[in-house]
Structures are given as structure tokens and as C-alpha cells.
What we know:
The protein is of the alpha/beta class. It contains eight helices and 13 strands.
Amino acid sequence: MLYVVGIGAGSREGMTIAAQNTIERSELIVGYTKYVELVKRIFPHKEYAATGMTQERERVEYALNAASDKNVSLVCSGDPQLYGMAGLAYELSEKYPETEIEVVAGVTAAFSGGAVLGSPLTHDFAVISLSDLLTPADKIRKRLECAAECDMVIVLYNPSSKKRADHLQKACDIILEHRSAETVCGYVRNIGRDGQESRILTLAELRDTPVDMFTTVYIGNSETKITGGKMVTPRGYRDV
């Protein structure tokens, strides 16, 4: 049995009970090196196998093969469907007809980080990754343009890295073509982990703010506001 497990932010408190129970009954835990390190702190006596960045296919193939005769948890941060390994596991499973797959949902960074900032996701929103490793840059730009033009709150994953230090700045420039520089925005770094930090700021300020791969960015819509020091997007209830 292969379980594809969302571990949330990586702390025990951020995991669902279903995720904890699944890992407990698994004989082998497979995942990206960083996520394996997080899980190992909570479940130190399990057997582990880890691979690095860009080795997703090898990681899933290993987990599928190992699951032929044991229960295996393939762990992903947040939810395994959102930029995780669930889809790839199903795609590659055709070569492993005897292996059954079950996806165990987790709390994605958009929601756990949103809770830190307040309630920025009360209305329609779009989640967009700025990483162009698997998605062409022109497609990312088009998605940013469309989400900005239709006034959706936008959550940005993978906003920057050493090789992509200016990607958030470029994304903000695209969004500024459709939104005010005073648009309420926010970010949370290391959600649910040691060193967590957050800030609420304007879109103009966000443009020049350094972030990293462990930061989740929130760009409000035209109605997003600061209430009691928190970032809040009204749902649109009448007469509230």
C-alpha cells in the first residue's frame, strides 16, 4: 500500500490526525530530504529514504516499488495534490498494478499561512507557483495577468530562490498593471516551524521585499483590508 501523505507545515500540530495515524502504521517513509527531516523529528524510529530537489520521479518510483510488499508513506509538505506527489504517483502507478494508492489530505501553506495573517482567503482566490522549473515562464505570466485582472486574491508559492531572485518583483510588476500600489498584501515565512515570521504590507512594498522558497505570499483583492492588525478579505455579506 502506498499512502501519499500531506504533512502540513511539518510540525506535529500542523498535521491532521489521519496523516499522523498513516505514518504511524507505515513501515517506510519516503520524501524530499527537507520533509523527511521534519517527519523524522516526530517519528524517529521509522525507516526513511530521501531524495533531493528535481528527483521527484525517482522518489515516486522508489516508493511505488517499495510498496509492493510493505506499507509506505510518500510524504509531501502541505497537501499532496497541490504541487505534491499525488498526481505523479497515479501517473506512474500503471507500471505497478499490484500497488494500491491512497491520498491523505493535508493543510496546504495557503491556509495555514493565511491563518497567521488573519483571513485573507475568505473569498475566491488563485494559487500560483512562480517556479518555472516545470511550468513555462510565459504561462506563469498569463496566469498572473488573468488572476490580477479578475480581482482574485492571489497566493504565490515558490516566490524566489537564488537562481530566481527577481521573480517576485516581476510578478508584482504584472499585478501592478491591474491593482493599486496600496493593495493589502502579506507574507509568512517558515509557516508552523522554528523562525516563523510574517508581515502585512502594501503591494508596492512587497515588490521590493526579499523572500525565499519557504515564504508564502498573499496579494489581496480590491476589497482586502486591515482589520485589527490582520489581513482580511470580506466574503461580501450584505449589510455587514
